[in-house]
Every structure is written in structure tokens, then in C-alpha cells.
Design a protein that fits this description.
heterodimer; A: mainly beta; B: mainly beta; 7-stranded mixed β-sheet; 4-stranded antiparallel β-sheet
Chain lengths: 107, 120
């Protein structure tokens, strides 16, 4: 199985900050990696797929990059609506696996 | 507009069974792979099962933790996805999401989820 490890697990930031979340895969993989945002009691929302492709309707302040074993999600200028939990996911091989999540909190 | 609506969750005793359903609308259901993902209390997202579309002969894949106990199925004529869960364990307690896979196999639409509680 490909293990996905996100860092940090919790991130405190302020509106307007630039933040980066890292996702490391236990083995090198092609860029079949996605990022999701989840708020309490809500369904996850797709943000990024294929490591760097922005899903339609997602604000351009979200971006993804990376290859091999290290991938990042960057939010260029935090907005109040962005405080949530973020998950990376690899869908290159079965079983499909998620990172443990990064909770983005208001400082 | 794509809609996925899960139903069938509830309270069940350990060792019991439950069948979840997902009603899909707003897209051509038969064109897509479909998945189930769960979120247990205090934990992260866990993928548990996938079923391919007809061109790929409805091939199924499972997470190790549910293989042999859970069965994913679909009825394209009813635009519906199912998850039969047998021999349920307390660790299966979670919100279960029905998820559509995009043509490139990431998860592009999620239902709101249905809560399954396994407890005596």
C-alpha cells in the first residue's frame, strides 16, 4: 500500500497568509494525486487533481504541485472560508489512500 | 446538477448487516466508476470500495479492512449504487459517502453521507 503522510497535522494561520501543506508518499508515484477540502458535517470538496490541475469553480488562490514522493497544496492568500481540514489522496494504485488530514485553524 | 443521495444508515449490533443505497441524478450514471468512502469519528477519510462501469465489466476493488464482509454493486437502470455490509464491527462506525469517480479516476462529486453506528 502507498502510505500518504501530510504535514503539518494542524496549521494556525491568519486571513491573508500564504500557507503550504505537504503530502509525502511512501513510494514514488505518477501524479495521480488529489486534494480535498472538508468542513465539519459536510461532504469533502475536490480542489486539485492530477497533482496540479485546478477543479472547475475552485478559486485560483488554490494551487498544487509536486511529483515523485512529495506534493504540496498552497493557498496564496487565506480567506475566512478556507478554514477547514484538507486531505491529499493518491489514486495511482489500489488501495486508494488518503493522508491523515491537515486541520487549518484561525490564529 | 449532479446529486448523490445516500440512505440506509442506522444503528446495528456487532455482527449485524446493513445495506446502504445511493441514488444518483444529474449525470449519466453508467459512464462512471463509483466508490464508497467513510469517515470514522476522530479519524480521516478511508476509501473502502470501487465498482467499475460496464465497459470494464463492473470490476470491483476493496480495502483490506472490508474485503469479504462488504459488497459493492450497482444498478445502472436505476442510477443506483449499493453497499452490502455484513458482519459489522464497532470499527465500521462512520459516515459513509457515495462518491463519483471522474474519467481520470479522482473523486469529483460526493454525497452528503449516511451515518452507520455499530454498537450493542
Amino acid at each position: 500500500d502507498i502510505q500518504m503522510t501530510q504535514s503539518p497535522s494542524t496549521l494556525s494561520a491568519s486571513v491573508g497568509d500564504r500557507v503550504t501543506i505537504t503530502c509525502r508518499a511512501s513510494q514514488s508515484m505518477p501524479g495521480w494525486l488529489a486534494w480535498y477540502q472538508q468542513k465539519p458535517g459536510k461532504a469533502p470538496k475536490l480542489l486539485i487533481y492530477k497533482a496540479s490541475s485546478l477543479e472547475s469553480g475552485v478559486p485560483s488562490r488554490f494551487s498544487g504541485s509536486g511529483s515523485g514522493t512529495e506534493f504540496t497544496l498552497t493557498i496564496s492568500s487565506l480567506q475566512p472560508d478556507d478554514f477547514a481540514t484538507y486531505y491529499c489522496q493518491q489514486y495511482n494504485t489500489y488501495p486508494i489512500t488518503f493522508g491523515q488530514g491537515t486541520k487549518l485553524e484561525i490564529k | 446538477e449532479v446529486h448523490l443521495v445516500e440512505s440506509g444508515g442506522g444503528l446495528v449490533q456487532p455482527g449485524g448487516s446493513l445495506r446502504l443505497s445511493c441514488a444518483a441524478s444529474g449525470f449519466t450514471f453508467s459512464d462512471h466508476y463509483m466508490d464508497w468512502v467513510r469517515l470514522a469519528p476522530g479519524k480521516g477519510l478511508q476509501w473502502i470500495a470501487r465498482i467499475a462501469h460496464k465497459p470494464n465489466i463492473y470490476t470491483t476493488q476493496y480495502a483490506a479492512s472490508v474485503r469479504g464482509r462488504f459488497t459493492i454493486s450497482r444498478d445502472d437502470s436505476k442510477q443506483s449504487l449499493y453497499l452490502q455490509m455484513n458482519n459489522l464491527k464497532t470499527e465500521d462506525t462512520a459516515v459513509y459517502f457515495c462518491v463519483r469517480s471522474a474519467t481520470e479516476y479522482h473523486f469529483d462529486f460526493w454525497g452528503q453521507g449516511t451515518l452507520v453506528t455499530v454498537a450493542s
